[in-house]
Amino acid sequence: MPRLIRASDNRNQPLVTPRGEVTALSYFNLLRLRAGESHALEVPGCELLCVVLSGQADITVGTQSFSGVGRRVDIWSGNADSVYCGTGARVTVRATRDGTEVAVAGAVCATRFAPFRITPEEVEMVEVGSHDTHSRRRIFHILGQNGAGRAGNLLVSELYGDAGCWSGYPPHKHDTERPPDETDFEETYHYRYRPETGFGAQFCYQNDGGGTEPQVVMTRHGDTFLIDRGYHPTLRAPGHEGYIFTILVGRHQRSLVQFFEPTHTHLLAKIPGIQAMRDKFK
After folding, report:
1. What is the CATH topology of the domain spanning 123-282?
2. Which of 76, 170, 187, 259 is the most exposed place for a label (fewest CB within 10 A)?
3. Alpha carbon 192 to chain centroid distance?
């Protein structure tokens, strides 16, 4: 069942690990370091991606080094600079600036892949929705189609949603493997708001006829939500821009196919950019 993890100082320890209560395949950690500080991590059987949210770091994967990763002051000031760390290698992140924060996304992966850097110029953006439909958001794909043949079933993106607008809308799910209509993916959302006093709402429901009660939770700056099933639209309160660091892990493949709730499929023609969004996740 989906679960909310409230914001806290995780002291550089993982918030999400494989074989957890909700997600079986996903890994998520937040590293917060001052200049000169370093943190080493090794997650056997997992592929990892280090995304510099703010500041700058030198990232070493095994014997391979990537210097000066990170070009932005914070998540609101440009595209991410990242390193795909491959599978099972020891990773060391050393901050070269104060206020360095690195999100580490991971997925269970049996295949060994080599590390590579993903520069801000390589990040692909797709705009979805509009102000008129209260659904405008921009999705920046960090590890998406660029990972085909070079990564396992891990997809990572940053979503920026306008104040008062919905995302994950029309409602969709991806909890059943039945291609070409739907593929089975776990998902992790990590929320930020501008200003940080902002908040939103996360919905999650199944409509399976089994009487499962819908979940609706208030999301605040720094919260994390784990999704293993169900439709999961998101709403931001007026006056607050929203950000979601998104980790998707495919159970059987890396091509994500969302299934839209039949009750609301008439909205697909009214909300711009839906097909472009779907194409970018495949």
Report:
1. Jelly Rolls (2.60.120)
2. 76
3. 12
